[in-house]
Amino acid sequence: xxxxxxxxxxxKEHLTKICRVLKVFFYILLALYSVxxxxxxxxxxxxxxxxxxxxxxxxxxxxxxxxxxxxxxxxLFILGRFCSIVSKGHSPFxxxxxxxxxxxxxxxxxxxxCKAFIAPGTDFGVVSDSGQAVVDYDGSQADEVxxxxxxILEGISCFVLAVIFRYGALLxxxxxxxx
Length: 179
Prior knowledge:
Layout: H1 2-46, E1 51-54, H2 58-87, H3 95-117, E2 123-126, H4 149-178
Helix pairs in contact: 1-2, 2-3, 3-4
C-alpha cells in the first residue's frame, strides 16, 4: 500500500510538471498566433492597394475564415487554461476540466464546419502592388465540398474525454466523501 501512495504522488508531480511546461507553451503559442493575426489584419487595413477577396459566396467564406481564426484563438486559450488548472496540483478530473474538454470538442466541430464553407478557388488576403498575396487560400476549382473527417473525429474524441473526465470527477467526489 505505501508503494502505491508513493507512485500516485510521483505520478501527480510528474503530471503537474508537464502541465506547467504545456501551459507556458500554449500561452506563448497563443501570443504568437494573436500577433500574426493582428499583423495580417493590419496589412489588410494599411496597404494602399487594400484587401482582395475574389471568389464565389464571398460573405459566407469571409465569415467562415473569421470564425475559424477566432476558434483557433479559443482552442489555444482553452488548452492553456486546462494545463493551468492541472499545473496548480488540482485533479484533472473536475467539472471545470470536463466542461473545458466539451467546449474544445465543440470548437473543433465549429472549425470543421467553417472550413466546409470556404469556397474552393477562393483567393483571400492582402495583395500588394506587385500582386503578392500574404494570405492565400486557393483550393481546387472543383465543385466538391471538403469535409474534414479527422477534425470531426477529434471533436467527438474531446466529447468522449469530457464524459470520461466528468465520470472521474464523480468517482473522485464519492471517494472524498468516504474519507
